[in-house]
Design goal:
Elements: H1 2-31, H2 35-47, H3 49-60, H4 66-89, H5 96-118, E1 121-122, H6 124-147, H7 159-190, H8 195-206, H9 209-220, H10 224-249, E2 252-253, H11 256-277, H12 284-303
């Protein structure tokens, strides 16, 4: 039964992402804003809902020790695998606004997170600081969208249909990701894998499946702004909103592995900036390098 549910979950993910990308691209056309803005906001927030559900629910239950691990692991996966897989499917040039604004913000918030976790605890005050950061970031995004109106070709669907595509697509992506995580976890347990290993691999990867599938589908459709914007926007949202909300609800204890993983994430932020900043495109070679690094990192966390 678990194997059937696993297949159903992947079908929901793929078809949901297809609708979600089409609706988001059409919405960008109607609003006359670059698709990258939609990717950095609506798509990024929508595909981060699984991480939000896991971390915030844990915070409400008073057992949010996994929150930092979940977010850092998801951000590493987003940057290396989501962007890497998108580049493998279709090499793309990074949007200049992402390079100048969002990648530096991504690096900055990751450094702030590292400084916070060194103290051994994410406090409520630090949570409020992170929440103030996401409010500021979204405000900047909205102002940028209003100032940079563009004439984009509108998809041949109505605005109400575009909204319906986004809503149904997002619901399918989130639900499908949940089904995949639950079924894969059941299969892993039946094979005798430990809870810790399952948490470090299946849960972290599973909650990032919406970003992966959505970005891959967007890349195939030529919407590179949605693909890269989704990954980077999700990373920023994960740290500022999800960890901010989780630690505001309940201070989060930090383990030593969180500190080393946050340092690894800083290095990965530098890598993706260098890949986007230098060279005409993020091509297949860079995509392969990113995926290879993720495989090496996964091997490291399994052995440690």
């Amino acid at each position: 039964m678990e194997y059937i549910l696993l297949i159903v979950g992947f079908v929901l993910l793929i078809k949901g992402a297809d609708f979600f990308v089409d609706g988001s691209a059409a919405l960008a056309g109607y609003l006359k804003v670059p698709s990258v803005i939609i990717g950095l906001t609506i798509v990024a927030i929508g595909t981060s809902l699984p991480e939000a559900a896991v971390s915030i629910s844990a915070g409400l239950a008073g057992s949010n020790e996994i929150a930092v691990s979940n977010i850092v692991g998801s951000n590493i996966f987003n940057t290396l695998v989501v962007v890497g897989a998108s580049a493998l499917i279709r090499p793309f040039a990074a949007d200049s606004q992402i390079v100048k604004r969002d990648l530096p913000v991504n690096f900055l918030v990751t450094v702030i997170l590292y400084i916070m976790v060194i103290g051994g605890m994410l406090s409520r005050i630090e949570g409020l600081i992170l929440l103030a950061g996401i409010i500021t970031y979204i405000t900047v995004m909205v102002r940028s969208a209003l100032k940079n109106r563009v004439e984009e070709e509108i998809e041949p669907i109505s605005l109400s249909k575009a909204a319906l595509f986004i809503a149904l697509g997002l619901a399918a992506v989130v639900f499908g990701g949940d089904v995949v995580v639950d079924s894969a976890t059941a299969i892993a347990k039946s094979l005798g894998l430990s809870e810790t290993l399952i948490g470090l691999t299946i849960v972290a990867i599973g909650t990032s499946l919406p970003e992966l599938v959505t970005s891959v589908v967007a890349s195939r459709k030529g919407e590179s702004g949605l693909a890269l914007g989704n990954a980077i926007g999700s990373n920023i949202f994960n740290i500022l909103f999800i960890l901010g909300m989780s630690s505001t609800l309940m201070p989060i204890p930090v383990v030593s592995e969180n500190i080393s993983d946050a340092l690894v994430l800083i290095g990965i932020c530098v890598l993706i900036y260098a890949f986007a900043r230098f060279g005409e495109k993020i091509g297949r070679i860079k995509g392969l390098i990113m995926i290879a690094i993720y495989i090496a990192y996964t091997a490291y966390i399994i052995m440690r």
